[in-house]
Specification:
Largest sheet: 2 strands, antiparallel
Helix content: over 70%
Shape: elongated
Distance between the termini: 47 Å
Number of helices: 12
Number of domains: 2
């Protein structure tokens, strides 16, 4: 099973959230998640191969270093869609015949560069880890919330939550180089999403303007 498939799997997600709360052996995870012992071991084996967990002396834990690049692949969906539009005007002005292809190729390279920088930022890793720890232990939600929640959902919602969160982060003095770099990377991410407008989005904006609502 691929990492993406496991992130959307309810039982694998239950195991993931249980491991966020506490490192555990397969038998303990099976009891905590109310799963069959053999199925739990099979899912853990798949999760280890996919880079979500690792095991030491029979005890499983989240492999945060390997999970973060997987998280970033999934978390930047809107950003990934927005990036090519940033370069289309440039390549059109240059007379590029395949300006869409050129824009997509450049956006893919730029996005890969951003992902590498975010994955290498220890502060971002700590933020993501805290995000899951708080969600798994302190989230204000019904008791059965985590039973139905998929890890994929939490990754998708990260980007939308970022849209609301970034404007409230004050531009205070950031003492470390990593903190400054992280704010810049997240701010660029936020700005790209804010500036992104598909033809349907532009039509909706024009419709509101036509009726004096914008």
């Amino acid at each position: 099973m691929s990492a993406e498939t496991l992130l959307s799997n309810r039982k694998a997600s239950q195991i993931f959230f249980a491991l966020v709360r506490k490192n555990s052996r397969p038998a303990g995870l099976a009891r905590a998640c109310d799963l069959d012992a053999q199925e739990t071991e099979r899912l853990l084996g798949n999760m280890e191969k996919a880079g979500l967990v690792d095991v030491q002396r029979g005890v499983y834990r989240i492999d945060w270093d390997r999970f973060l690049p997987i998280f970033l692949r999934q978390a930047m969906n809107v950003y990934a869609a927005a990036m090519p539009w940033k370069y289309i005007p440039y390549y059109m002005e240059q007379g590029e015949q395949d300006f869409v292809e050129a824009s997509c190729a450049r956006a893919e390279r730029e996005l890969a560069r951003v992902k590498v920088k975010l994955a290498a930022n220890d502060l971002f890793l700590k933020v993501v880890q805290s995000y899951y720890e708080i969600l798994s232990t302190d989230a204000l939600a019904p008791d059965d919330y985590l039973q139905d929640l998929r890890v994929a959902d939490t990754i998708d919602e990260f980007e939308y939550a970022l849209l609301k969160l970034l404007p409230s982060i004050r531009r205070q003095k950031r003492s470390s180089k990593q903190a400054r770099e992280l704010f810049r990377l997240l701010h660029d991410w936020y700005k790209q999403i804010q500036d992104y407008d598909t033809p349907t989005g532009a039509a909706l904006r024009a419709a509101f303007q036509e009726h004096g609502l914008l």
